[in-house]
Backbone:
DNA sequence: CCACATTGGCGGAACGTTCCTTCAACCCTA
DNA sequence: TAGGGTTGAAGGAACGTTCCGCCAATGTGG
């Protein structure tokens, strides 16, 4: 029953008959030590089960050893963000950083600032007061997607190429000559903004009328029903519907059915955000894979690189998207 | 441009004309100080924007200031776990603890142990090697649901009353006299085990045949299709299907439709795990709300209490479930 | 054989907190 | 007024690490 305190550098030093400086240098690769000494000390450390105390290391180094991940409140519950968080945690771990989850504060006024070396914001939403709070921490901020706040400048950014994704999806749907309706969240995120912009541009280029219907970011079936009903009444006829939000497309299929339209025979339906639940349907729904896991990984890697000093602040990475064609648009 | 180092206790002490001990005592409520001094020091600290350095505090106190949350790999992507994580993060923050996400290790052998004071395991899976790794950290472990590993004893546990939830759901579905099929994940989690057990007991009590079909924890529509087809062929007739996994029920509805059965006129379908996507359907699906957010909160609170010493190790909390009746079972 | 550079390693300060010990000043009572 | 108890506050060690500066021993060239 070895109920003893944890092994410290000092313990290893004693066991190895050297000073704690030597142990520290040997294990970290710093200092001027012959390989023989390094190996000997490392072997003893391993044998004793030494594991460095992070608090001490962090105190000495003036860091916290953690990076944060913030989700705006409205995004909670979407599978997308779960995947992103896991990707970020994996990558952070690989860089010897802990991933701390930062919930949207119930009390927007005073919430204790987290103790972190940097923070990732997944899908900054225009007007979210938490953005200011995080910026005030004076630590590097990496955003997933762009922050539309005027004048906002962050240490780094990873963004999906939603304009290309939108064009690819629309090209895929353009087989029928009639209009394509877009059910899309608003322009308070670059996600919504880019999709809308690309959609309008595509419509202009292809001589189609742009039919945009507002739906909230987190899908409410009532709104989808309403938007679908309205879209199907559009003059000129609608041959395809793109529902952007995660989960909206299933509602759109049902709403269309209620309007007497069959998918895909009668009407094409696609989602923009892909999710496992779209694959599981009797008629699986075409969607754009925006690779949340990879997004989380990239953001964490970028932030870790900035913190370590070998990535220039201001770096922007673009993540490609991939169209997943399924039965709901096969024609 | 105040590009200075952070304010320390010493800085506050100088500004207030007292010692750092006095500042520490004043801010923490310890020591013997008159209220006047406490307030004066606190005011100065606030004015200077003092915020305690966690690394130093943790080093001194021998803690890490963080608790971990581990999800087994198979659970990734489910909305349930996202909600649970957010709940846990909120509650941890309220106890001045950071919530560190622990991903399932890609390399099951050697992964650097996280630096945490305690850990929550959401849905321990029998045979997961990570359970042993976490136990070896010698920090309190709180599980969400029971750990079925023989001899496993943890510091605390929060569990949903799935047996009651199952009975309530079955009672609700029992209006029709014919059989109720259960699509359920295996018995490697207490979740699957309890639902199966309760189901069998209920069937025995109510003179119905038990029809259990294995489906994986993360829903694969093919498996659901197969299971539904098989269930509907069962002699004696099936009047209702309960699909346990998150997301399985939508596949079940479609599979049933393909077999020529209509929901709810012809067949009742319910999910066990509730999720927003079940509400969004043309025919919303009845489910049991197992309150993931609250589960996360409770687990974090329990762990924080154990760490603080005012909750006895071994405490078990039971979380009630609530049946959400929707159109898919209205009869 | 001396001057000097290099190698290998050690001592100790510093990071910012908490907490144990000490101590001066004060008040009361005998 | 001496003695003891209480109050208010300070000093300093300790937590475990990193890293700067120093030093002894060893090589190296003239």
Residues:
């Amino acid at each position: 029953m070895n109920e003893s305190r944890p092994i410290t550098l000092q313990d290893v030093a004693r066991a190895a008959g050297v000073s704690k400086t030597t142990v520290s240098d040997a294990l970290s690769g710093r200092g001027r030590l012959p390989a023989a000494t390094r190996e000997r000390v490392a072997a003893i450390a391993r044998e004793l089960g030494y594991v460095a105390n992070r608090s001490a290391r962090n105190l000495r180094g003036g860091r916290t050893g953690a990076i944060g991940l913030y989700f705006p409140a409205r995004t909670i519950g979407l599978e997308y963000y779960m995947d992103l968080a896991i990707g970020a945690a994996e990558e952070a771990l690989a860089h010897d950083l802990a991933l701390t989850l930062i919930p949207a504060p119930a009390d927007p006024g005073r919430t204790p600032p987290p103790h972190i070396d940097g923070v990732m914001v997944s899908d900054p939403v225009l007007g979210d007061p938490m953005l200011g709070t995080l910026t005030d921490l004076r630590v590097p901020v990496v955003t997933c997607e762009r922050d539309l706040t005027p004048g906002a400048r962050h240490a780094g950014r990873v963004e999906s190429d939603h304009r290309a994704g939108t064009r690819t999806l629309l090209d895929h749907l353009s087989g029928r000559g009639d209009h394509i309706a877009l059910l899309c969240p608003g322009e308070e995120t670059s996600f919504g903004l880019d999709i809308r912009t690309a959609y309008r541009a595509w419509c202009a280029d292809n001589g189609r009328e742009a039919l945009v219907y507002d739906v909230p970011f987190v899908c409410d079936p009532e709104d989808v029903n309403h938007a679908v009903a309205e879209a199907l009444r559009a003059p000129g006829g609608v041959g395809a519907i793109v529902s952007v939000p995660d989960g909206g497309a299933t509602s759109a299929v049902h709403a269309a059915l209620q309007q007497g339209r069959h998918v895909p025979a009668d009407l094409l339906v696609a989602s923009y955000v892909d999710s496992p639940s779209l694959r599981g349907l009797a008629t699986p729904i075409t969607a754009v894979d925006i690779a949340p896991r990879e997004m989380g990984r990239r953001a964490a890697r970028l932030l870790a690189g900035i913190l370590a000093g070998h990535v220039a602040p201001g770096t922007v990475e673009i993540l490609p998207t991939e169209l997943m064609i399924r039965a709901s648009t096969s024609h």
In short: Residues 7 and 48 of chain B are 7 Å apart (CA to CA). The first strand of chain B starts at residue 66 and ends at 70.
